[in-house]
Amino acid sequence: MSLVVVGSMALDTVKTPFGEVKEVLGGAATFFALAASKYTKVQIVAVIGEDFPEQHLDLLRRHGVDVSGVQRRPGRTFRWTGEYTYDLNTAHTLDTQLGVFADFHPEVPEHYRDAEFVFLANIDPTLQLEVLRQMRSPRLRALDSMNFWIESKRGPLTEAISQVDVVLLNEGEVRQYADTYNLYVAARRMLDLGPTALVAKKGEHGAVLISAAGVFIAPAFPLETVLDPTGAGDSFAGGFIGYLASVGDVSLATIKRAMIHGSAVASFAVEDFSVDRLTRLRPEELQQRVEQFRELTTFESTE
Amino acid sequence: MSLVVVGSMALDTVKTPFGEVKEVLGGAATFFALAASKYTKVQIVAVIGEDFPEQHLDLLRRHGVDVSGVQRRPGRTFRWTGEYTYDLNTAHTLDTQLGVFADFHPEVPEHYRDAEFVFLANIDPTLQLEVLRQMRSPRLRALDSMNFWIESKRGPLTEAISQVDVVLLNEGEVRQYADTYNLYVAARRMLDLGPTALVAKKGEHGAVLISAAGVFIAPAFPLETVLDPTGAGDSFAGGFIGYLASVGDVSLATIKRAMIHGSAVASFAVEDFSVDRLTRLRPEELQQRVEQFRELTTFESTE
User: Fold this and answer.
1) Do the domain assignments include residue A77?
2) ipTM of the assembly?
3) CATH label of the domain that carries residue B188
């Protein structure tokens, strides 16, 4: 089934203990779309400036991503500069230049509007609401957000949360939004607003799905080499929602498998800088890693 | 099979956001023994002062724990005072009074020395080595330690690590010992010293087993109420080693189940202060929680 994503496309400059890259392809919508493209047809809504290399759009097209909803506007593309130290869990933002992203208003092309799945990547929640108004009757709406919007746009964010089925947030942001330390108490408060499920992303500790139907815990894949964590969360979301869209149902059993697919795709994303590992990821590698997850967590009964 | 534990018995004064208790039963060997007693016969080696209430020894005896290796010495029992704030992951030590623990030299009673399983709880590694010299031919030796010994007794600790089969440490201590950030790289360096397996304890994020045979990730049980995290790690160790001793084999399949039993027992331990929840824990509650762990992490194949 078709899947629409709205979010940032960016040029990233990133330094980690293992190397440095300048003005490479980045952005939440980019990572999400490339991850989800392993599973289903993706349609992207975003904005880029005059300086955005056409080759990046070609890359997305080669992965079957529909980029007709990407607006090219006068001005510069959104740029993010960040650094990770040895604790690869935390990105330190050194510079943000919004460029054309500052005046972004998502326009969902007519041929996207019947999509059954929609993912609102981390952008201003008022823009997330604009997108929801343009979609006709999606089966599953999901959103990501961040501490900045919790602090500065709590009202619109709460409205957006109440209008989606699945919320994905970093675990610290779940606690921050609900203003309580216990993750499961915080999650229950967020679910009271309307969503059927919440995914708390925990970086190297994996991700937890909390819903009325049950709790499911997906570990992070044990990696000895993490070159660049940028885009891990959006790649997780892409694998997660992409898998759901490919199967076309949202039963708990399917959602559990989707969590593992999300973790698997994210584990590849961090093995190289930018989207490099995602773009060369082969289906059989992905399938093999999903099976390895089973070994990581499955214990046999004594019976 | 029989299981010997050596470690501290203490009187704890603990404050958490949910309450406060004064001079209650605590200590690593105590939590371990009560947790392991759910699975097998436990024999304890420890030291207590003249002021240690006899009722605490009676409690241990009622749980089938052999306390004939507990030395009562002139002086005061080891006391620990600590506080947890809303982040229940970190204990803040307010006061430590070693008392008779300062001059402790473990004496393993003759009828303990043929035990097949031995757990060296967190004590001075030179004492852990003294215990190993007194045991005849245990099938499985395991130890816990902490940052204090990594910093102050690295030599004896390294010797002790090289003489055991399983090392249990907090994940931060694994990184600290191996002086590298990546947990799996750090674990490999520690396994190079001799142990066949390392268990990295991650508090609310669960625990990870790393061995040449494979990696296994046990989540922490999702709890909305944690009253007091004191003893969680030792209860995990007690469930883990206790289960192994009860089955009597150390295959990877058994070790995986043992990790889940460790997590399950630990999840009960934190539901009340001191050892209160452990002592009233019924076998059927424990078995039910182990089955709930399966739901938490098991995903069905699409085939």
Assistant:
1) yes
2) 0.90
3) 3.40.1190.20
